[in-house]
Specification:
This protein has helices at about 15-25, 50-60, 70-75; strands at about 10, 30. By secondary structure, the chain is mainly alpha-helical.
């Protein structure tokens, strides 16, 4: 992979969480959503995308990394200054 590349893991179903933690520990990014997974790391059914995002935020913090703000994400995804 070229230096400076951004990459992420998208896990499906319950496997999303171990794959997300592996990606975070290797410097990758994660994304979550009910379109890929209905379960929280505990195995409990997620009630919303927000519940999955909250669980992902906890994983990010546990990995020692910080969560990107909306503005951070825009800069990361559109380094040349993409628009809304």
């Amino acid at each position: 992979m070229p230096a400076g590349s951004r990459w992420k893991v998208i896990g499906i179903s319950r496997e999303q969480w171990p794959l997300a933690m592996a990606a975070l520990s290797l410097g990758g990014d994660v994304r979550v959503g009910l379109e890929d997974n209905f379960y929280l790391p505990s195995g409990e059914m997620a009630t919303s995308n927000g519940a999955l995002v909250a669980a992902a935020v906890e994983l990010v913090k546990l990995s020692g990394r910080s969560v990107a703000t909306v503005d951070d994400a825009k800069r990361l995804l559109w380094p040349g200054g993409g628009s809304n």
